[in-house]
Amino acid sequence: MNIKKVNFNTSSTTFYFAAGIAHLKEFVDVQHAVMLVDEQVFNQHAKRFKGWKTIILKSGEQYKKQSTVDAIIKQLIELGADRKTILIGVGGGVATDVTGYIASIYMRGIKFGFIPATILGMVDASIGGKNGIDVGVYKNMVGTINQPSFILHDLALLNTLPEIEWQNGFAEIIKHACIKDAVMFRELEANSLKKYQSKKTLLCDLIQRNALIKTNVVIKDEFETGDRKLLNFGHTFGHAIENTYKLSHGYAVAVGMVMACMISEAYQGFKDTNRVVELIKKYGLPVHQSYNAKKVIDVMKADKKKVKDVISYVLLQKIGKAVVEPIAISEVENIITQLEAK
Amino acid sequence: MNIKKVNFNTSSTTFYFAAGIAHLKEFVDVQHAVMLVDEQVFNQHAKRFKGWKTIILKSGEQYKKQSTVDAIIKQLIELGADRKTILIGVGGGVATDVTGYIASIYMRGIKFGFIPATILGMVDASIGGKNGIDVGVYKNMVGTINQPSFILHDLALLNTLPEIEWQNGFAEIIKHACIKDAVMFRELEANSLKKYQSKKTLLCDLIQRNALIKTNVVIKDEFETGDRKLLNFGHTFGHAIENTYKLSHGYAVAVGMVMACMISEAYQGFKDTNRVVELIKKYGLPVHQSYNAKKVIDVMKADKKKVKDVISYVLLQKIGKAVVEPIAISEVENIITQLEAK
Known about the structure:
Keywords (chains A, B): Cobalt, Lyase, Metal-binding, NAD, Nucleotide-binding, Zinc
CATH class of the largest domain in chain A: Mainly Alpha
Helix content of chain A: 40-55%
Distance between the termini of chain A: 49 Å
InterPro entries (chains A, B): Dehydroquinate_synthase, DHQ_synth_AroB, DHQ_synth_fam, DHQS/DOIS_N, DHQS_C
Structural class of chain A: alpha/beta
Largest sheet of chain A: 7 strands, mixed
Number of strands of chain A: 12
Oligomer: homodimer
Mean pLDDT of chain A: 95
GO cellular component, one term (chains A, B): cytoplasm
CATH architecture of the largest domain in chain A: Up-down Bundle
Protein name (chains A, B): 3-dehydroquinate synthase
CATH topology of the largest domain in chain A: Dehydroquinate synthase-like, alpha domain
Strand order of the largest sheet of chain A: 1-2-9-6-5-3-4
Domain 3-dehydroquinate synthase N-terminal (chains A, B): 55-167
Largest interface: A-B, 33 and 33 residues
């Protein structure tokens, strides 16, 4: 186990890397804890949750919505959860987003921690305090920013992870490489998903490295006034197609990164779109999705990153170096309409 | 107009006392504002809201619930509200609680301000950053603590205030006197509701004084680990009967204060229950409500102020001096069951 405590503006989070759920009892009082566990994770690892109060969360982004929140709050009341209760979210990004959100509003805020059970969760979704739910096709339209007390990684949970979830996780790893780490980009080019799956130490190192890339960006800019926006690379277009075309998050971001690279060529003279496309393909992710430009633009117009008629688009100058470029929504509309036919 | 800026832990609120809605344009950009206005206030003062984007809120505690939040969020998306939008809640405690809550979760948090349109709102509900909604009979079960950017008092809005709402507001004023201000308690004994209604300067002074009593308690203890709990005087029992017996908030608190006085006699040797009872009666408020002890205890068991099996009960040592006494829920149950028959 590798313990690392990081400080945010008004709170701190302790990481327990390369740990196990069994370690949890060393720092959480079982009597005061309620676990919100993703259904698939619970079914595949039921033994690990013995002795803990658990509420089962249905798996999938379609359950990241208000009716799920309503149902869980009802269960928390029935369980007698009070202000001393700590909620522990176990699962992918949906489980941790929903847990963080409920803990932030239940009785005006109680403590919470995360045990991410996917690559995506470990390197991205569990980190940074953003939580929330979708409203219709609008992703994360409602939520808060509130840091978990702890994040514990149990790599044994990855043993049952489906291939598509490995791919989803690597979409965010590739994103981190694109915006912040050219060395890691080359490492990803030299390796493969199979290699990371078979070499646990290599994987463990990659996960911890990516968790800390995201953490460091967030620490510098918790409330997303500057550098944190870079983490949205691939996400503007990605979010606009994710729910509309029922893509997994990583798939949508992969397509979004390719779109952002093409826009980067025009606005920033970016020259390595092809390397990004090849790397995305190498990790089993899609580089294209047919779409209806009008539908996509309608969702983009409601994107949280849009302020009035301008979108803060994250573009690449080169691999490892990203910038935020304000682009008028009308221009984005032109680009997306032109590319629709291709 | 009397401007006063107060600082909380991580934010500040500017009070505009003795002001008017017409002043709003001096510090709020109309283009970026959406007003959430209580239906009765809007109907009675429609002219004042001309030129502002408005969403109408149905009047009454029964609308302080998730389905109202869902409907407003949908309207905000349709209006194109983004992260630069400021929400302005206009009305009583329900309007400001709902507005503060929605602003705290919409797009993970946008700015908000309040124009309380009731005495209760001006002296209590709009102040301190607590917001939220009820879940079934459980009051404020869901919410956040988040301070408004501004609070503006327009006493002209009180011209149409129904008598019961004057009484509701004075319940909290009497509460402030009981826990913090023996001088004001005597002033209230010497005056009457009619006198305050007819003498605007007397009323203006009383409202500002009470707004600052509450503000000062909150500043010292924003997240309610100590002194802020005193503001719950009359509220433990009050909240337990409010929704169950469909009482107005002030009526429930008035009955709750009498209950707290009786418990104070036993636990703190308090001797002035009769003076509190007489003052409550003088301002048109009830001092008794028939109840079913089992029902009341069930709601109390889910009260946010309960931690495990102990309730932090706010009791009086004397008029103007309150203390928090931890009482086992089983003892509270005994007392309430004994008093049920009386």
